[in-house]
Amino acid sequence: MLENSRLSVVFVTRKLNLETGNIKLYARVTVDGKRTEFSLNRELPVSLWDEKRKRGKGFSKYVISLNKYLDQVFTGLHEAHRQLLQEEVDICSAGIKARYLKEDDRGKTLLDLITYHNTSMSTVLRKGTMKNYNSTERCIKEFLKEKMGVDDIPLKKLNYGFIVEFEQYIRKYKPATRMGCANNGTMKHMERLKKMSRLAVKLEWLDKDPFINFKLRFEKTERQFLTERELQRIEETTFKVPSTEHIKDLFIFACYTGLSFIDVQELKADHLVKGMDGNDWLYTKRTKTDEPLKIPLLPKAKEILDTYKDDPHLFENGRLLPLYSNPMINRTLKDIANACGIRKKVTFHVARHTFATAITLSNGVPIETVSKLLGHTKLSTTQIYARVVEKKVGEDMQNLMATMKQKNYRSGEVS
Question: In what order do the strands lie in the sheet with 280-285?
């Protein structure tokens, strides 16, 4: 590394064109007495060149534009020099030229990799997946700015140390809209960065995978859902505040359709159609995966839609249900759960889990059908709910056996 390497950038002229009277401009890069030159693909009349200032003369539009371009080249070459210093490599004039002209692979940065990945994968990955990659990109940019004080880093600095520090940052990451990431959310960000680093290895932008010694540690989580009795309790409870009653309706509707928050919000009147069986169906797409959804309306879901069908505001906007923000809905659902004596953390997504477990699987709907209704692309995703139901059945039977044992014990006492 040449920490004290002396850089000189000047602009020189070559080859006077006798026919036009124009000269061609070149950039000369000198490092410790060794120089290289490259064409700027610009020319101007010799009379408009100030040899002393190494700039164009006058105030014509062309000269002003030319001088602005020369300033950009000058700044760009010094930036290339700064990058090479930061990367701790030997510095020479040819290397600075190559970095400025983007002719060297060593000039790739972390954001170059992210941009390449997101651009090339935008037509391959699903909309929801790309949204997640964009979220990871935003976290990386904020980490670079807040913790490293830079906008970008050379790709070679994506190493084990960077990965560990980024993981810790994500765990404490607190944008204005939410708290820091839980373990699995953190691991998802790390998993996406790992996939991008492997792409860099395939592209030969990196010599080895920096994640080779980093293990992703996902925790098994329980899918929270309501029992039929708990759902019935919410259905039977009325609230004086209109917005609370509306949010209760939205939640119940999702419990009987399996729709996510965003899919409920996106519902329009033209999504409600008559199916082949002559009954009302919802034909829409799952926003997260773009997977088509065809959901027959259960009576309770139809009843809720009928409640709002004459609402002039909804009719004017072509919507089926009222709109509320996700944070407001989740805050209100917490109050609703407390009012109904439900000691579970109830969020809007619990409705989707409730549909999968208490409404469908627990009532004998085949898992393949449930998978279609939920818009899952893999049956294995739906099988998570089946295991939850199986576990719940096991727990209920254990409780039953304990009750029966207690009854037998008491009857023995009497006799």
Answer: 272-274, 280-285, 292-296
Joined together, the tokens standing for residue 138 give: 């935003």
Q: Which residues pair with 7 in a beta bridge?
A: 31
Specify whether 329 is located in the same domain as 284. Answer: yes
Cβ atoms of 350 and 261 within 8 Å: the answer is no
CA 151 → CA 55, 125, 131, 142, distances in Å? 31, 27, 21, 9
| 54 within domain boundaries | yes
301 burial (CB, 10 Å; 0-12 / 13-18 / 19+) is: buried
Q: Do 289 and 128 touch, CB atoms closer than 8 A?
A: yes
Contact 137, 152 (CB under 8 A): no
If asked whether residues 279 and 342 sit together in one domain, one would say yes
- The CATH number for 277's domain is 1.10.443.10
In a domain, 277, yes or no: yes
pLDDT band for 122, please (50, 70, 90 cuts): confident
For residue 300, what are the contacts with CB-CB under 8 A and spacing of at least 6? 235, 252, 256
Calculated CA dihedral for residues 317, 318, 324, 326, nearest 10 degrees: -130
- How far is it, in rounded angstroms, from Cα 391 to Cα 187? 26
Determine phi and psi for 216, rounding to 5 degrees. -75, 130
Helix, strand, coil percent content, the chain, rounded in steps of 5: 55, 15, 30
Q: Do 57 and 133 belong together in one domain?
A: no
Residue 220 lies in a domain: no
- Return the sign of the alpha-carbon dihedral for residues 253, 254, 256, 259: positive
Order the strands of the 7-14 sheet from edge to edge: 7-14, 22-31, 34-45
Considering its fold, how many domains does the chain have in total?
Answer: 3
Same domain, yes or no: 244 and 156: no
User: Looking at the domain assignment, is residue 415 inside a domain?
Assistant: no
Residue range 196-245, pLDDT digits in tens: 999 999 998 888 999 999 999 988 777 789 999 999 999 999 999 999 99
* Residues 355-380: tens digit of each pLDDT: 999 899 888 899 899 999 998 888 88
Averaged pLDDT of the chain: 88
Q: Are residues 378 and 235 in the same domain?
A: yes
Identify the sign of the CA torsion 90, 92, 96, 98: negative
pTM over 0.85: no
**Residue 381 shares a structural domain with residue 256:** yes
Instruction: Sort residue 290 into left (φ over 0), alpha (ψ -120 to 50) or beta.
Output: left
* Host domain of residue 75: 7-101
